[in-house]
Each structure stands twice: as structure tokens, then as C-alpha cells.
Amino acid sequence: MKRMCLMALLAASMTLGLGGCASLYPAHYYQLDSGTASVPKTKAGSAVQIRSLTIANYLQRRTLLQRHSDGSLSEGKARWAGSLTDDMQHVLLRQMAWRLNSNRVVIGSAPEGYRPEVMIELDISRLDSGPQQPAVLDARWHLLDGNEKLRGSRMVHLEEKHDGTEADQVRAQSLLLQQLAKQLSGAVTVAEQAAKKSAKLSSKQPRTQVAQEIDLPAKRPKIIPIRTGAEVYRF
């Protein structure tokens, strides 16, 4: 009986000891960085809605995954401090609002009374890195105007080097999202300029037609003699 008690105490001591050793190596938690983006100065700006943001299923976890040379993924000790999806939305929203200088950039459902001038459908299929692998972002987006007419579409592949540490991997992944926001903002600006140019041309076209109609002299109808086969006899 005494021997069993001693063995139980020894097992408990070993468990506590291992727990104490594990506490010496706590998990590190990270968040994506939105960079130096500042708050827009204007109260208005372009109404841009990222109405759908689809993120790959394998990224829906708390662990900072590590990519290896054979393409496989493994879980490390590092963790995301919260939802990675929320972090990605925050980076994109803050970066685009800053680059477009607009307080009317939204992600997801639009608030009541909000009428977007440009809508974006974004699909991020990859965002990861590894000790020996660069940070990689693969995405595809569609750009639509306020009438839901397609104005642009693009597939994106971006890479960023790092020093192999988990902290620098997060930095590299953050930079990739910032670059994606830069490309999206540029596409929005081009679409807006094209829409304004089209509207300007369409507004001028009716006036030009009226002016042409006024300047043209009135044409008199051409008189065509009528001939008949009848003969006139005089007596």
C-alpha cells in the first residue's frame, strides 16, 4: 500500500514538473500590422464596399501555420491573437481608407442608406510562410460599379522575403496584405476616373446633336416633274 502511494506521489510530481517546464516556453501571439496608414482627413470620399471577402478554409484557425519546401503545412507554437479573418479585414479597411482618403469604405453588409459607387468581391486563397519559405499571398478580385456591372478582374500572386523567425514572417504577411490593398485602391481610382469620363461624354453628346441640327440649313424639297403618257390635242 505504501509503495502504491509513493508511486502515485512520484507520478504527480513528474506531471507538475513537466507542466512547470512547459510554462517556461509560452506560446507567442501575433497580429497583422496595418502599417503607417493614417485616418482619412475627409469626412466623405469614395463609397467603396468590399461586399464579399472569402478566405481559404485552412486559414480559419488560431495557429500560425508553417509552410515547408514540399508544400506541406504544420502547426507551430505561435498563435494568432484573435481571429485572423478579423485582422485581415482590419488591414484592408484601414489601408484602403487611407489610400483613397475616404471614410466611406466598408467591408461586408452596407449600412442603411449607403449606396456604393464601387463594389469589390475578393477571394484570398493563400496567405502563409515558413522558416525556409517566403510569405506568399494568392488572391483574386472582381470590381463592379454601382449598377453591378463588371469593371475589372484580376488574379494576384505576391511574395515577400523574411529572416525565418515567426515575428518576421508575420511582418512579411502584413506587407503582402498592404500591397493587395494598394492594388485594389489603384483599381478603384481607375474605375472611378473611367466612370466620370464616360458620364462627361454622354452629357455632351445630346448638346452636340442639337447644335448640328440648328447649324444645318433647311433643305427645300426637290421638285420632280410628273410625266404621263396622255397627249393634249388642240383644235
Describe the overall structure.
- By secondary structure, this protein is α/β, with parallel strands linked by helices.
- The chain contains three helices and eight strands, in the order αββββαββββα.
- The protein has a domain at 45-198: ABC-type transport auxiliary lipoprotein component (Rossmann fold), CATH 3.40.50.10610.
- 38% of the residues lie in helices and 25% in strands.
- The strands form two sheets. The protein has a five-stranded mixed sheet with strand order 5-2-6-7-8, with helices on one face.
- β6 (118-128) and β7 form a beta hairpin.
- The model is unreliable at 228-235 (pLDDT under 50).
Tell me the quaternary state.
single chain
Q: Which runs of at least 5 residues are low in confidence (pLDDT < 50)?
A: 228-235
Mean pLDDT: 83
Largest sheet: 5 strands, mixed
H/E element order? HEEEEHEEEEH
Tell me the strand percentage band: 25-35%
Question: Architecture of the domain at 45-198, CATH level 2?
Answer: 3-Layer(aba) Sandwich
> Strand pairing plus helix content: what structural class?
alpha/beta
Helix content: 25-40%
Net shape = elongated
Keywords summarizing the entry:
235 residues; alpha/beta; Rossmann fold; 5-stranded mixed β-sheet; 3-stranded mixed β-sheet; 3 helices; 8 strands; 38% helix; ABC_trans_aux; Lipoprotein; lipoprotein; signal
